[in-house]
């Protein structure tokens, strides 16, 4: 039989139509799989402080080999001269860091298009409108949420300041 004879039968025609539809769907799926959606625009926020990195690099390394070589269950074992500290833990003899004055959050406004703002006030200054990335005193606004403001100081300290509830 020739191709013309095969195409006269209704079952063969239905099978050819199904084959064409299947090839079309396969091509459409392959194109959708390799083409991604556009990424949404986001605000770049820098939260790294070089002062904090320099302070961490000045710490003396802990002698782990000495701790491993000593017998943990020995009767004559004693505490080390210098206690072990985690890399970001402050030394016990270091003075407590003085935290700069935080602004008071008077209110926040959260918009659906990402243009949030907050009304803040330093101790005796006038109220000010701030957006993400703005500076107030030594603080940089890193996030604005409903009733809450995320701040980062110039030395890398992160703080969340909450707006007081009405009537308090």
Summarize the helices and strands and which ones pair or pack.
Elements (H helix, E strand, L loop, with lengths): L2 H4 L3 H25 L15 H8 L6 H6 L34 E6 L7 E5 L6 E3 L4 E2 L2 E7 L2 E6 L4 E5 L6
Antiparallel strand pairs: 1-2, 2-3, 4-5, 5-6, 6-7
The secondary-structure element order is HHHHEEEEEEE
- Biggest β-sheet: count, sense, barrel? 4 strands, antiparallel
What is the straight-line distance between the termini? 92 Å
Low-pLDDT runs: none
Strand content: 15-25%
Helix content: 25-40%
Mean pLDDT: 80
The count of helical stretches stands at 4
Specify the overall morphology.
Answer: flat
> What is the structural class?
alpha+beta
Radius of gyration: 32 Å
The strand order across the widest sheet is 4-5-6-7
Number of strands: 7
What this model shows, in words?
By secondary structure, the protein is an alpha+beta fold. Helices cover 26% and strands 20% of the residues. It contains four helices and seven strands; from the N terminus they run ααααβββββββ. The protein has helices at residues 3-6, 10-34, 50-57, 64-69; strands at 104-109, 117-121, 128-130, 135-136, 139-145, 148-153, 158-162. It has a four-stranded antiparallel beta sheet, with no helix packed on it. A three-stranded antiparallel beta sheet has the order 1-2-3, with no helix packed on it. It is flat. The N and C termini lie far apart (92 Å).
């Amino acid at each position: 039989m020739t191709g013309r004879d095969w195409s006269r039968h209704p079952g063969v025609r239905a099978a050819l139509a199904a084959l064409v539809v299947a090839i079309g769907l396969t091509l459409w799926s392959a194109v959708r799989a390799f083409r991604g959606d556009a990424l949404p625009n986001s605000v770049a926020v820098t939260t790294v402080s070089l002062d904090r990195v320099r302070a961490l690099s000045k710490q003396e390394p802990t002698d782990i080999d000495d701790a491993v070589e000593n017998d943990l269950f020995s009767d004559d074992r004693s505490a080390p001269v210098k206690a072990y500290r985690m890399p970001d833990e402050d030394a016990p003899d270091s003075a407590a860091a003085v935290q700069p004055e935080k602004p008071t959050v008077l209110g926040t406004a959260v918009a659906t298009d990402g243009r949030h703002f907050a009304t803040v006030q330093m101790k005796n200054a006038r109220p000010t409108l701030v957006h993400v990335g703005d500076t107030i005193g030594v603080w940089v606004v890193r996030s604005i949420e409903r009733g809450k403001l995320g701040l980062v100081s110039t030395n890398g300290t992160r703080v969340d300041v909450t707006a007081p509830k009405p009537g308090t």
